[in-house]
Design goal:
Largest sheet: 6 strands, antiparallel
Number of helices: 29
Protein name: AraC family transcriptional regulator
Keywords: Coiled coil, DNA-binding, Membrane, Transcription, Transcription regulation, Transmembrane, Transmembrane helix
Distance between the termini: 83 Å
Oligomer: single chain
Number of strands: 16
Helix content: 55-70%
Shape: globular
Organism: Paenibacillus agricola
Pfam families: GGDEF_2, HTH_18
InterPro entries: CdaR_GGDEF, Homeodomain-like_sf, HTH_AraC, HTH_AraC-typ_CS
Strand order of the largest sheet: 3-2-1-6-5-4
Length: about 775
């Protein structure tokens, strides 16, 4: 039998046709196997990216919520740091009285009104004493304090901005320790830590609300891990032990990656907070995720084995007609193609090589997310971050299926954004915005070629005609249906703007600017409208709003004249509509007016109306003129309710006279005696009245005015420090330097250098 097998093998290899069939069979096996595994790994990568994207999105929402809470807690620390009571408590040369300690405890209690903040403590490192909000109070010795754990984290504390740790604390009368998050902010004087501010954050309230509404078909476990790989918080952990998670994160820094413990394969997604330094991690099993893909891979591999087995059997049984399968394959390949049908063996091999290249090309396209490539290209093009060659090259690579037909730019914007956003938290706003993007992509993508980009709080669409029959009217109709769909599904009103038609990517940026200008005319046209740039008639004369309007409106605020302010605003509205003032002029005027109103309340130590506390300059871009005027009327009405009782008091008027005198005579060497003489009162009386009304001493207020004027001159002029000293009431340069270093923790020269660098950076960003 061996002799027979040897004879058949010799005959087989001596037959050229049989050898060719075996080569073709092996080639098909390799092609199918490579293609199968290529598709398997491509599909696996795409699935992991698709699954990881919402996981990372949810982690980012949670991270931003934690960052906001930590930033709010840090702001409490900053407020304590800037308080005069803190300065007095940490001053080694001053011993606070009992009533001052009581005021300090009450001040700390007021800072813990947020349910997120459990308590606030201030530690005097020099005299080893501590004061805190209720129930801590004042303790002259650390040994009297039940909570001792915090000292483990402050012994070697650096002078960084703040440190945040997860620790256990003891409560008075309880043996069991309670988990808490503590933010430590050092108080630094002359490069030495003289005190420490501690803000204890409720750990359960910080994290539970973030993860309680997360749902996922993949049953993800989520963790928050600090810089030392200590797990700060975990949710739904039934997948992977904590020690394995730390090992996995130490090995990888990518946003998502595979990890296996020898039994199960996991997909781990992670992001890192640049504020807390914590990692937010999601872990899911891939068994269900890759089940179908693995099955397809096994089937393809089985088919590959079957094909080679069939080839071997075919050769053994029918090697005398070896070219019949070759002719059959050639017939199937070329049946529906034009061209010659008499390919020889070499040409057939070339064809299979081309087929492999085509499959590899298709696989590479699957790996890339076209939408992200389009968005990045358009962002760079608008920002001018590409040269002409790169602009052309990337356009032809990323928009291969786009033709030479005309294109349009479209901006879609939510109307009256602050009113729309007020009922929702940040997470709900992000979900609604995500839904608007998907609706826009699906709706317009079914009718036009489309690329979608997010621009601030607007949605930018680049659309191209699918045929010559489509025109601006068709686009307007499709946009109207899209806006109605968004309103019906999401109860959200949006406006749209369309730039001029263009044919080349080089004209895209200009068309975008036109759409942006058209959108600004929402100020006059109102909400849920489609503004087309070509239909906007701009005159050659550009009317503006006189500065006297602003001065008159500020006087109304100072005098609490709501009725006059309302009439002025109504008249201003009529004049703007009549003159059709350019929207940019209107937005600039009202933003400056709102900034001035804000500054009035801040400079005079007055409580702000609720609407000013939430104010964001972006609001005006999304409002029509009627709502803008109504917003200012609301500000004046709320301000009147806050100011009227305050302004009727004699002491308030006296304080305002003192403030006015200080501002007018700031360049003179004035002090408390001169200010008291200007209002006809004694020095002790003006000090008492000013402290009661402004919650700060008269001397501190005068010094702060001088510091603010000094900062303005340092940042905006090239005057010498000695000249600035004379302008702000100091007799010589050294006096100003000492005062500035004391109140700003740096010299005037250092401040001027920082201000110039910041101005240069801002100028660069504006140019880009």
């Amino acid at each position: 039998m061996l002799k027979s097998l040897k004879h058949w093998t010799s005959y087989f290899y001596s037959n050229k046709n049989s050898r060719l069939i075996m080569m073709v069979t092996i080639g098909m096996f390799i092609i199918i196997t490579i293609t199968g595994y290529s598709l398997y790994f491509s599909s696996k990568s795409v699935l992991q990216a698709e699954v990881s994207e919402p996981q990372i999105h949810l982690l980012r929402i949670g991270m931003e919520a934690v960052n906001n809470s930590v930033t709010a807690a840090d702001q409490i620390g900053v407020n304590i740091l800037l308080s005069n009571l803190t300065y007095s408590f940490l001053n080694p040369d001053y011993e606070m009285k009992q009533v001052e300690l009581t005021h300090l405890i009450e001040y700390l209690d007021n800072l813990t009104v947020s349910p997120l903040v459990e308590s606030v403590l201030l530690f005097d490192k020099t005299r080893q004493r501590i004061v805190g909000s209720t129930p801590y109070g004042y303790s002259s010795s650390l040994s009297n304090l039940a909570d001792q754990d915090w000292q483990n984290y402050t012994a070697n504390m650096s002078t960084n901005r703040f440190t945040i740790v997860d620790r256990n604390k003891n409560l008075l009368g309880f043996e069991q320790k309670i988990q808490t998050i503590t933010l430590f902010r050092p108080v630094v004087r002359d490069n030495e830590i003289t005190g420490i501010i501690m803000v204890n954050i409720n750990k359960k309230k910080l994290f539970d609300k973030i993860f309680e509404n997360y749902t996922s078909q993949t049953a993800a476990s989520r963790f928050v891990i600090d810089g030392s790989n200590h797990i700060v918080y975990e949710a739904n952990n039934s997948i992977l032990p904590q020690d394995r998670i730390a090992v996995a994160l130490a090995q990888e820094q990518r946003n998502y990656f595979d990890y296996t413990d020898g039994k199960e394969r996991y997909l781990i997604s992670q992001i890192t907070s640049d504020i807390t330094g914590w990692k937010f991690v999601s872990v899911i099993t891939q068994q269900r995720l890759l089940q179908q893909v693995t099955l397809i891979r096994n089937i393809v591999f089985g088919l590959s084995l079957t094909s080679i087995l069939a080839g071997v059997i075919g050769i053994m049984v029918t090697h005398y007609v070896t070219f019949k399968p070759v002719r059959r394959i050639r017939h199937l390949i070329l049946a529906n193609q034009a061209g010659p049908h008499n390919l020889d063996h070499r040409e057939l091999e070339d064809y299979f090589q081309k087929l492999t290249a085509d499959l590899s090309h298709v696989s590479s396209i699957v790996k890339h997310n076209r939408g992200e490539l389009h968005a990045k290209y358009i962002q760079d093009l608008i920002a001018g971050r590409m040269n002409a060659w790169e602009m052309q090259d990337r356009w032809h690579r990323h928009f291969t299926d786009w033709t030479d037909l005309p294109m349009f730019t479209i901006l879609i914007s939510i109307d009256n954004y602050h009113q729309w956003a007020s009922p929702y938290n940040d997470e709900d706003q992000n979900l609604l915005w995500f839904a608007i993007k998907n609706i826009g992509l699906e709706w317009m993508g079914s009718r036009w070629k489309i690329a979608l980009v997010e621009r601030d709080q607007d949605l930018l669409l680049i659309v191209q005609k699918n045929s010559d029959n489509q025109d601006l009217q068709h686009l307007r109709e499709d946009l109207a249906e899209l806006m109605q769909t968004i309103h019906n599904l999401l109860r959200t009103e949006v406006s749209a703007a369309v730039g001029s038609e263009f044919y080349s990517y080089t004209e895209l940026r200009n068309s975008y600017l036109q759409a942006e200008l058209a959108l600004s005319y929402r100020l006059y046209s109102g909400y849920s409208q489609i503004n087309v740039f070509s239909e906007i008639a701009e005159g050659t004369d550009i009317p503006s709003i006189e500065g006297q309007w602003k001065q008159d409106l500020l006087k109304c605020l100072e005098g609490s004249n709501v009725e006059i302010a309302t009439k002025l605003l109504t008249t201003l509205q009529d004049n703007v509509i009549r003159a059709i003032v350019h929207p940019a002029q209107v937005l600039s005027f009202f933003q400056q007016l709102m900034d001035s109103l804000n500054a009035h309340f801040t400079d005079n130590g007055l409580a702000k109306p609720n609407v000013l506390r939430r104010y964001n300059s972006f609001w005006f871009k999304t409002m029509k003129l009627d709502d803008m005027i109504a917003l200012f009327i609301q500000v004046y009405q709320e301000a009147s309710q806050l100011l009227n009782p305050h302004m009727r008091s004699r002491d308030f008027l006296v304080v305002q006279q003192m403030i006015q005198y200080m501002k007018l005579h700031l360049h003179e060497n004035i002090g408390v005696p001169e200010i008291a003489e200007s209002v006809g009162l004694s020095k002790s009386s003006v000090n008492t009245i000013f402290k009661q009304e402004m919650s700060r001493t008269l001397y501190d207020y005068l010094t702060e005015l001088r510091m603010q004027e000094t900062e303005t001159n340092l940042a905006e002029t090239d005057l010498k420090i000695a000249e600035i000293a004379l302008k702000v009431g100091y007799q010589n340069e050294n006096s100003l330097i000492r005062a500035f270093r004391k109140h700003r923790s740096m010299t005037p020269g250092q401040f001027r250098e920082i201000a110039k660098k910041a101005a240069a950076t801002e100028t660069t960003e504006l140019i880009q």
